[in-house]
Amino acid sequence: MDCTVGATFCAHRAFLSEFxxxxxxxxxxxxxxxxxxxxxxxxxxxxxxxxLTGLEAALEAGDPAxxxxxxxxxxxxxxxxxxxxxxxxIYMGDELALLNDRSYVGDLAHxxxxxxxxxxxxxxxxxxxxxxxxxxxxxxxxxxxxxxxRRRAVPGLHGGVxxxxxxAEAAGVFGFRRDAPTGAILCLFNFTEGWQHLxxxxxxxxxxxxxxxxxxDQPVQLHAGDLALPPYARVWxx
Length: 238
Prior knowledge:
The chain is α+β, with helices and mostly antiparallel strands.
């Protein structure tokens, strides 16, 4: 890890690795270390989207509320991937919220490479109920399809449209603007488990001329001059 960029950067990288491996106190993630550099302390993480966002831990604990939060984290992530730019990538199994597959450790050809933890055999039983089921797999599948359908319907999210990272006026909200010829699109994501609020003045200053969410294709209602974002909300505002 190149710590010439500063101790804060290195500490944050270390925190992220511990959090997503599952060792940090209070983490919801379940992952596996990958490419650990003992000399520098640098390390990376393997794991399925569902396990890294908390679904595995929630199911182990029998906690339906935590499982619902994990599903919302996944759908927020898919909405971010679909709108940031370039070609959206969905790793096989992430569309069905498949969990980590730790059976790789028993295979001598794979045991040395933790990336096999997110290369499971397809669960065709779960796939069979993706259109009508009510479990996490079905909810994530239908939600992801809806996100990608909206991306196709919004020309301003074309890969050639520039992306500008924004400093949102709310802690825990990640935002960027797609500067399309048809008008700016503000893509906003609440990375927290609490409600966040963005002032209307900031939204309009960043180019939101219409309070309309292109992701849900519904008008956005402001409350006391603020846009209220529930936990893990995702909005493509125009």
